[in-house]
Each structure stands twice: as structure tokens, then as C-alpha cells.
Amino acid sequence: MAINKNHEFEDLDNIKCSIVEKNVSAARVQFIKDILTFNKYEVVVVPSPAPKAAPAAAAAPVAEGEQAAPLAPTPEPISPSTFTVGVTDLRFNPTNALFGRSLFTPEGHVVTIAYWQQKDVASDDSIPYFEHKK
């Protein structure tokens, strides 16, 4: 059980995992997976559960002698557009890893918050996050 909302656990593909991010796109999955595998974490990615569908509307009563309207065909399930990313190391907490400066890029730089959020294309760790001017 998680102590707080920032450190969640789930079973992903029957493997107990620490959750990194939920409901992320395929491009974001690849970005996160590249960083975490470089830092020697085993990454597990599963499709996010589909949103709960609204209940079907009840059919209108049919008067005697009238034909009922044909039912609409059931739409085919679409492929998942979002994913849940986790790591098998239950000690991993993405918030602590970022603020603790324990993740590195393949170029050897510390992963900054802006880089993790994909706001910067390169990780500039020469200036601490609290001194950045906006």
C-alpha cells in the first residue's frame, strides 16, 4: 500500500510494479522507457484501461403493430491510445528520483524536471531547478 499518492503500486502483467506514469501516449512511453532502461530499471508497459462507457439507453416501447427500430451495431474495440508505465523496483519513486537527481541521460547529464516533462530538448543540469528564471 502506498504511503502517499506520489508512490503508487499496481500489478502490471501480473508483476508488482511501482507506477511511473499513467495515461501516457506511445511517444511518451518510449521517452520514459529509454531513460529508465538506461538507468538500469526494468520497465513494464501495459495499455491503460478503457474509460467506463455510459450505460446504453433503454429501448423505447413499441406500439402494437409497429416494428421496433433496428439496434445500432456494437462498435469494434479500438486499440489503446494511452499506457501505464511502471518499474519492477518497488523502491523507485519518480518524484524522489527527479528531485534527488538520481536519473541520468545517455549523454551523462542529470535528468532535470524540465527534461523529464519534455519541455527542454536537452538536460541542462548546470543550474539547479530552484534558480531557473522564467
Number of domains: 1
Elements, N to C (H/E): EEHEEHH
Give the distance, in angstroms, between the N- and C-terminal Cα atoms: 37 Å
Gyration radius from CA atoms, angstroms = 22 Å
SSE class:
alpha+beta
- The average pLDDT score comes to 81
- Residue ranges: pLDDT <50 for 5 or more in a row? none
Percent of residues in beta strands? 15-25%
Number of strands: 4
Report the biggest beta sheet as strand number plus sense, adding barrel if it closes: 4 strands, antiparallel
Number of helical runs? 3
Largest beta sheet: strand ordering: 1-2-4-3
| Residue share in helix | 10-25%
The rough form would be described as: elongated
Polypeptide structure, described:
This protein is of the alpha+beta class and 134 residues long. The protein has helices at residues 26-38, 94-99, 113-116; strands at residues 9-12, 15-24, 43-47, 83-87. It has one domain. The chain is built from three helices and four strands; from the N terminus they run E-E-H-E-E-H-H. The protein has a four-stranded antiparallel β-sheet, with helices on one face.
